[in-house]
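Give me C-alpha cells for this 494-residue protein.
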Amino acid sequence: MTSLAKYKHEWTYNVRADILSGLVVALALIPEAIAFSIIAGVDPKVGLYASFSIAVITAFVGGRPGMISAATAATAVLMVTLVRDHGLQYLLAATVLAGLIQIAAGFMKLGYVMRFVSKSVMTGFVNALAILIFMAQLPELIDVPPLTYVMVAAGLAIIYLFPRITKAIPSPLVTIVVLTAISLAVGLDLRTVSDMGDLPDTLPIFLIPQIPFTLETLMIILPYSVGVAAVGLLESLMTQSIVDELTDTDSNRNQECVGQGVANTLTGFIGGMAGCAMIGQSIINVKSGGRGRLSTFVAGVMLLFFCVVLGDWVGRIPMAALVAIMIMVSIGTFSWSSIVNLKSHPRSSSIVMLATVAFVVATHNLAIGVLVGVLLSGIFFAWKISQIFAVRSELSEDGRKRTYFVEGQLFFASSEDFMRGFDFREVLDHVTIDVSKAHIWDISSVQALDMAVLKFRREGAEVEIIGLNKASETIVDKLAIHDKPGAMDEMLSH
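Here you go.
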C-alpha cells in the first residue's frame, strides 16, 4: 500500500463511527477547554479556538489517526506566569515559537526517544492520568445538590448498559442527549456548561501577535516555549503509544512531532494557546469507535460549530453528563492489572511504576513524573547489568604469569568491581587481561582498564590485553592512554 493510499484509507475506512465519536469528543472538549483557559488565566475563547485549530490541523498532518489533540492542562499550567507578567500577546508568540521548536524536533527524529521509556513508566503514566482525570471531576462532585449524584449515576448506567442494547451509537453521546433532555424537560437546577464561561460567538480570525520583535522579547518567551514544546511532545508521544496499544496499530512518532508543531504554530496566529494530545479525550474517541483522521477532524469542526452556532443549546448540557463520561474514561484508563502485578513483577519495575504515579499526581506535571520514572528505570537497569559481571584469574604453573578473565558488561557502574578483581600487590612477570567475554562501553570503563594496566606496570609486570571485540577495540583505541608517555601522571591528575 502506497503512503498516499494509506493516508486516504485513514480518512475513509471508518466514516460512520468516526463522525459519531467526533461528536462525543467535541461536546466533552468544551468544558475542558474552558477550564484550561481559566488555568492559564485567559479568556475561554483562547482555549476553545486552540482546541478547534489543533484538532483540525493534527487531523491532516499528525502521525496518529484517531488521537485527539487540543488545549490541555499540561501546557496551560506552564503559561500562567507568562500571561500574568506579560499578557495574552506574549502567550500567542510563545505558542508560535513552541510550535516551531516541535517541528524542528520532528525533523531531528526526536520521536525515537520514546524507545527509552519503559513499560513500567508507561503504566505509571497511564495510572497517574486516570487518577488526575478523576480528581479533575471532584469540583463538580463536592458541595453540589444531591440530584447531581443521581444524574452522574444515571449517566454511568447509560454508558455501561446501553452497549448491551446496541453499539451503533456511542453510549457517551446517548448519555449527553438523554441527561440534557431530562434536565430541560424537568427544569432541574444543575450546573451546566454555560456556567463554566462564555462560549465564543464568532469564527477565529488570523492575527499576528502584537509584540515588539526584539531579542529581549525572544528571551522572555523562549524559556516558556521550550518548556511547552517539551511537555507537549512528551504527553503527545506517550498518548500516541497508548492509542497504538489500544487500537493494535502503528503510527509515526516523528510525523506526530511535526504535526503538533504545525498545529501550535498556526494556532498562535488565530488567538489560541498551545496544546498537545489529550489522553482522556483520545480514549473517549477510541471507546466511542473513533479510529481514523476523520474523528479528530469532526471533533475540532463540531466543537467550533457547537460553540458558535449552537452555543445556547450546548450551554444547557448538565455538567453531570460530562462528569459521568470522564469517570468512565478514568476507570477505563487505569491499568487495574498493574495492582495485581505488584506481587509478581520485579520490585524495581513496581517501584518505577509507583514513583511515576506519585510524582505525576503530586506535581500535576506529567513531564516530571515521566522523567523520574525514566531516571529510576535507567538506574535500576544499570544496577542489574552491573551485577552480571565477574573477574576470575588463573596462575601459571611457575607462578610468574597470571591471566585475568573478565566477563560481562564493563561500564561506569561495574568499573569499581572490575578494579577490585585484580591483586596489584602480587609479584608477577606477566599479566594477561582477557576481555573476550566482556564488552567495554564508556570512558569510565576505559579509564578503569588504563588504571589496571598502569598499576601492574608500576609493579614491574608486563601487561597484555587480549580478546577485545571490534566495538570495544574502537573505543579503547580512541580513549585509552596506557600506552602513551606519561600516562600514569596524566591518569593521577584527573
